[in-house]
Amino acid sequence: MNHSLSHDHKAKDLLSRIGHDISQLKGDVSSLLHHTGKHTISDSARDLADQARDRLHAGGAYAASQLRYVRQHPGQSSAGLLGGLLLLGAVGAGIYYLCKSDCSVGCRTRKDHSDDDENVSNTNQLPPYIS
Asked: How far apart are CA 128 and CA 122, in angstroms?
């Protein structure tokens, strides 16, 4: 029962069908990626932007209502307002210094890497005192 692959019609038919299925699968995956990139991701980004906008509006409305309350009752919450402003300033200063330190570390790291790149590119050159 030695059948060569070139003479086995059933094997040829199966290989042909597998090749067709694989090419069809490649087309389906390509269509899926195209649809996902064009529609699904953009719709999700739009939904996320709408949620952010809604929350900003809600936060603004809340802040306005609290400001109206403070204006209507100036003596009651001045200590709370002052404490809140101090806390907000401390948080803002902490974020500023945290970002500043991360940036300076990142900048130094990038500078160190660029110096390393320059040293690597200059290894093929002779020092200036050897001419």
From this structure: 12
Whether residue 92 is contained in a domain is answered as yes
Instruction: For residue range 12-32, list pLDDT tens digits in order.
Output: 888 889 988 998 999 899 888
- DSSP H or E stretch at residue 8: none
31 to 3, 24, 26, 40, 104: CA distances (angstroms): 40, 11, 9, 13, 44
**Is residue 2 domain-resident?**
no
Q: Which domain holds residue 45?
A: 10-72
Contact 11, 5 (CB under 8 A): yes
How far apart are alpha carbons 26 and 29 in whole angstroms?
5
Residue 29: strand, helix, or coil: helix
| CA 38 – CA 100 distance, rounded (Å) | 37
In a domain, 128, yes or no: no
| 61/46 same-domain check | yes
